[in-house]
Specification:
This protein is α/β, with parallel strands linked by helices. Helix content is 38%, strand content 22%. The longest helix is centred in the C-terminal third of the chain and has 16 residues.
Length: 193
């Protein structure tokens, strides 16, 4: 399976970086073709420009700034997100990826004024994330990133596609043991992906 791994963390020595390496290594070892998109390493610009917004519903061509990312997304059969949860949301660079790449005629089509999901080449989705705060605190806030993955992405990709959400909560209080357990869980899920 061709898997696009979307990674969003600026620090190469972070626990998130170690999770990302594990994801790529285990998916590759399992025989998948992995397109590893490190948004920071590729210096992805998350800002939707004025011109992009004005032309949002216009047909696009290969000269568009987001075109290489659109092509990578459309070539994938599965999507794995790897990111920290900051301020109860995606890092800005990952949010910007959705704003600039999940476009009309890419992730949805406008039919009679209604957005109809169309990213049906994506047959499986997984998210691997960390939270500084507790599960309960995330629950009190409505856990927006989990809802974005389990609702928005689920509704956008192939109908019935499995979607999984792996989260290590309370990173601020984590221990080497808790991180090791989570890493093992992620490794096992990627091996079975």
């Amino acid at each position: 399976m061709k898997i696009l791994v979307l990674y969003a963390h600026p620090v190469e020595t972070s626990f998130n970086a170690a999770l990302h390496r594990t994801i790529v290594e285990r998916l590759t070892a399992a025989g998948h073709s992995v397109d590893d998109l490190d948004l920071y390493a590729e210096d992805f610009d998350p800002r939707l420009t004025r011109a992009e917004r004005l032309a949002y519903h216009d047909p696009r061509g290969p000269q568009e700034a987001a075109s290489p990312y659109v092509q990578r997304l459309l070539a994938a059969e599965a999507l794995v997100l790897s990111y920290p949860t900051w301020n109860y949301g995606f890092p800005a660079i990952l949010k910007g990826f959705f704003d600039r790449v999940f476009l009309p005629d890419v992730s949805f089509r406008m039919i009679n004024g209604k957005a109809t999901p169309s990213l049906h080449n994506i047959r499986k989705v997984a998210a691997v994330t960390t939270y500084g705060g507790s599960w309960f605190r995330a629950l009190l806030m409505g856990n927006p990133p989990k809802k974005l993955v389990s609702r928005m992405l689920r509704a956008t990709v192939k109908p019935g596609a499995p979607v999984s959400y792996l989260a290590h909560y309370s990173m601020n209080l984590s221990t080497p043991e808790s991180r090791e357990r989570f890493m093992a869980k992620v490794a096992a899920r990627m091996e079975a992906f």
